[in-house]
Amino acid sequence: NSLRNVKRFIFTDSYSTLLQFTNSLFHQKVLFFSYFLPVASSSSSSSAMSRSIVRQSKFRHVFGQAVKADQCYDDIRVSKVTWDSSFCAVNPKFLAVIVESSGGGAFLVLPVHKTGRVDKNYPLVVGHSGPVLDIDWCPHDDNILASCSEDCTAMVWQIPDHTLTRPLSDPVVVLEGHSKRVGIVSWHPTARNILLTAGSDNLIIIWNVGTGEPLLSMDDHPDLIYSISWNRNGSLFCTTCKDRRLRVCDPRKREVVAERLAPHEGIRPMRAIFTRDGNIFTTGFTRMSQRELGLWDPTNFEEPIALLELDTSNGVLLPYYDADANMVYLCGKGDSSIRYFEVTDEPPYVHYLSTFSSKEPQRGMGFMPKRGVDVTKCEIARLFKLHDKKCEPITMTVPRKSDLFQDDLYPDTAGPEPAMEPEEWLDGRDEDPILVSMREGYIPPKSRELKVVKKNVLDSRPTTRRSMSALDTNSLPVSSLYFFYIQNLKATVLSQEKRICDLENKLSQYTNGTD
């Protein structure tokens, strides 16, 4: 070809064309011989090439690992209720799991450090007359937990620091306002004592649990609510509904500020969570029943920021979000794997990192807050996988050679102190979470009394808010009278037990000759 071109140049006597050809031929020779020439700075060129090919991220090599068998929680009868809930809630002090029980709903509360086999007679938290559907630990007090049930109520419990010796049946407060089963409970991220509940009556109620009174309610959803997620400062929350709409709601204005029809085209249940940047991460199904995830800007719902198809499976993907690392962990019910992604400002915005796989399918999942991870082992997340009869912790770790504290992995995280009181939030104030340092490792505080402006029922001993001591017993039905007498009898027995223990201690002192 080159010889033919030379002949053409000679016959046409085109000097300019010949000059162009000569220059191109020279550059081709230079490129050809450059492959065989030594490279002066191979490290710099290779690093530049890697930067152009591989995305740089400190979480790119995160790996999951199941703990040893003796660090699991065995012989737990996980609930078999057909409800798309995680069935598990965890904080730096306690692990709570919804379990099977006869005669009503119950859940198990264990200290996080109490691993191994759980005694079949271990005391449960009982009080609901129907199966428990959802539980959630208070972000501002590690001893306070909320639960909801098919009995149309939500309850708030105060869990003692010591191990339970008898079933806990007296909630601090009973929240009654729904006409059908209550399937979702969610604490406000920054305001003290604010709890949200959602029921099958399509009603959302926001409570002040310090007084046991409802503050706000919304009935904008025409069908069953699948999920609810607060944003970072608690000014908005997003919901997914059976009518296939994704909504962003302002509870204090009692209005829907944005909505999107069918962010996922399938009719299967969706999930949605707020990210720290104010975007919304969703999981759902395509029209062909393929599972997919999406990232949306609530100020512009026309087009997704990212939309990614995953696989074909029936299990609903439950997203768990780490705001400090901006990572999302996807756990599908019935799956045996956990996928995790990083959300960034660079295309394609949702970056797949890796998958943790095991042999056993998961019935539910719990997600430890960042203040409960082990910073000495570069652990950035810990999930609690529910099997049929046990709970298995799974640690997510960034491999690092240094034993020093890794500042880039552990920015200041949300601490247990609330940023404002219920009245301040209700008046329109918004505050981000109060952050704490992870440098020395997080040490959970001892059980402390909650403080509110008004009288707080959580400040007193755990007695049910639905007390009958002040009611006229003559106007009560027989069943209520029995309940009233039983409650009084329980209180009498507890007071006598305490007195007996005091007397026994004094008697032992006299016997030993110490007094």
From TrEMBL:
WD repeats lie at residues 125-167, 175-217. Pfam families: DUF1899, WD40, WD40_4. Keywords: Coiled coil, Repeat, WD repeat. This is Coronin. Belongs to the WD repeat coronin family. GO terms for molecular function: actin filament binding. It comes from the Eukaryota. One of its GO terms (biological process) is cell migration. The keyword Nucleotide-binding does not apply. The gene is CORO6. Residues 52-116 form the DUF1899 domain.
